[in-house]
Design goal:
The chain has about 200 residues and is of the alpha/beta class. It is built from seven helices and nine strands; from the N terminus they run βαβββαββαβαβααβα. It starts with 9 loop residues before the first strand and ends in a 6-residue tail after the last helix.
């Protein structure tokens, strides 16, 4: 039963690459008809098999920078080594909230702080059970990954766990082969935090 406190509408999942936040987001969207993923904007080129407005809102660098200026990009990160912007696209967020849906944002620490401050979002950090298992997971996921790239991602993951994890409201461990368990923990959090689940 929902209490009289106002219902929460925005939920944030973050975690290192390979932690499973995208998979968990998909599971919740499949399970509850009133949840949707926030489609982010990016200035990177579309890859084979991707669709505009489904995977990302693909924009030129100029369009993205204009979006920042006119307030359509409400928070963003610039990834220097890829010369690419990623950010949250306000029209997508407002359209979904306007339709009465709950919105899941997969964002980094910058986005997490923004949604916590501006949308009272509950923030959940998805953590791999160990760095060793994360390394294996990343290797399985991309067979062509170089050791150098793998080391870089592991270093980033260690950095996020050490410096950013404590900022989140909750930490959920997504252990190998125990995805359903992680999803159950998250559903319990959502009930406690006053999200409508339908």
């Amino acid at each position: 039963m929902q209490n009289s406190k106002s219902l929460k509408r925005v939920l944030v999942f973050s975690g290192p690459t390979g932690s499973g936040e995208t998979t968990i987001t998909k599971k919740l969207v499949e399970k509850f008809s009133n949840f949707r993923k926030l489609v982010a904007a990016t200035s990177r080129k579309m890859r084979a098999g991707e669709q505009n407005e489904i995977d990302y809102y693909f924009m030129s660098r100029e369009e993205f920078e204009n979006g920042i200026k006119n307030g359509n990009i409400i928070e963003y990160t610039y990834v220097e080594n890829r010369d690419t912007y990623y950010g949250s696209y306000k029209p997508d967020l407002e359209k979904k909230l306007g339709a009465g849906l709950n919105v899941i944002a997969n964002v980094d620490i910058v986005g997490t702080k923004y949604f916590k401050e501006n949308y009272d979002a509950t923030t959940i950090f998805i953590k791999p059970e160990s760095i060793k298992s994360l390394r294996e997971r990343l290797r399985k996921r991309d067979l062509s990954i170089t050791e150098e790239e793998l080391d870089k991602r592991i270093k980033n993951a260690e950095n996020e766990i050490r410096n950013e994890m404590n900022y989140y409201d909750y930490v959920v461990i997504n252990a190998d082969g125990k995805l359903e368990e992680a999803v159950e923990k998250i559903i319990n959090i959502l009930e406690k935090e006053n999200y409508k689940l339908s």
